[in-house]
C-alpha cells in the first residue's frame, strides 16, 4: 500500500504510516513532507518530532491539533508509538483497559477527516495479526483506515538482493541516467543495498559517462576501489592456491590505495563467512538465499563463500583465522604492514 491519496477537498492526505523503513528512503520521504510545508524558516517552527515510546495519544493529538504558525499546516513525526501501544494492549484474556482506551482514541482520531496537520508514524516493526492493525470491538484498525482512505501506509523497505538491480535500474531511469544492464548488476554486487551510496555512485558515474550509457568498465574503474568484489578475487585466488593470481589481486587493491589494515580486516571477514557457511552447509542444504538467512549474511558473499569453502575443511579455516590473528598482532606491534600481508598471502597460497 502506498501514499499519494487525497482528501475530498483535494488536499493531500495528512496521515501516514511508514513501515520498516530503510534509512535512506525514509530520509527522502520525510524531506518531501518537510518541503511541502513551504518556507524552510517557517517549516522549522511547524515541525514536531516525538519519541513514541515516551508519549501517549493525548500528547500526540495535542501536537496534531495545534494551529500552524504563519503556515498552512504542521508536520508531526512520531517514532515507535504504535508498536509501543500494541505491546501495552495485552491479550484478549487479560486486556489493558487503559491501553485499549488510548488505542481507541488514536484510531478514532485517524479516521477524523478534520485533522489538518500532517501526522506521520514511523514503525520499525508492527505485527499485522494484532489489534492495532486489525481493529477491535468494531473499531477500524490501521488496515481498514488505509482501505477507507484515512491513512497512507508506505513500506519503505530496503530492497533485498534479488530486487536490488531493479531498484538501481528504476532509480537511474527516474533520474535520466543511462546505464547498461551488466553495469547495473555489477553496481549491485559491488555496493550492495546501501541505497545512499548507490545514489551517490550513480551520480558519479553519470558525470563520468557524460551523455553515453554507463558501462561495466566505468563501474570497475570508479567504484571497485571500495568493493568487496576485489577482496573476494583475492580470497578466491588463495583458495585455489594460485599465488600469482593472488598477488595480482593484492596489487590491484593496493593500486586503489587499500590500507593494509583494511585488507586484513576484510580478508578475515571473508574467511569468517566461509567458516560459517561451511559449518551450515555440512548440516543443511539450500541456495545462497536460504543459507544467508541462516548465517546472518548477505546473499552475495554467501554465494562466493559456498563456492570457495569447498576448497577447505573446517579445521583448515579455523587454522587460517588463527594465522590472520597472528598477522594482526604482528602489524600492531611493529611489523611492516605491507610486508606482513605479502607473507600472509604467500603462506596461504602454498599447497597443503
- Major beta sheet, strand line-up: 2-3-4-1-7
By CATH, the topology of the largest domain is Rossmann fold
Q: H/E series, N to C?
A: EHHEHEHHEHEEHEHHHHHHHHHHH
What percentage of the residues does DSSP assign to strands (E)? 5-15%
In total, the number of strands is 7
**Proportion of residues in helical segments:** 55-70%
Instruction: Give the C-level CATH assignment of the largest domain.
Output: Alpha Beta
What general outline do the C-alpha atoms trace? elongated
CATH architecture of the largest domain: 3-Layer(aba) Sandwich
Q: How many individual helices? A: 18
Task: Walk me through the structure.
With 352 residues, the protein is an alpha/beta fold. It folds into 3 domains: 15-155, P-loop containing nucleotide triphosphate hydrolases (Rossmann fold); 164-225, Helicase, Ruva Protein, domain 3; 228-348, Zinc Finger, Delta Prime, domain 3 (Up-down Bundle), CATH 1.20.272. Helix content is 57%, strand content 8%. It has 18 helices and 7 strands. The chain has helices at 23-35, 40-43, 57-65, 81-89, 97-110, 131-134, 142-147, 164-174, 181-191, 195-209, 216-222, 229-239, 243-255, 260-283, 288-295, 299-308, 314-332, 337-348; strands at residues 15-19, 47-51, 75-79, 118-123, 135-136, 139-140, 152-155. The protein has a 5-stranded parallel sheet, sandwiched between helices. A two-stranded antiparallel sheet has the order 5-6. Strand 5 and strand 6 (139-140) form a beta hairpin. The longest helix has 24 residues, at 260-283.
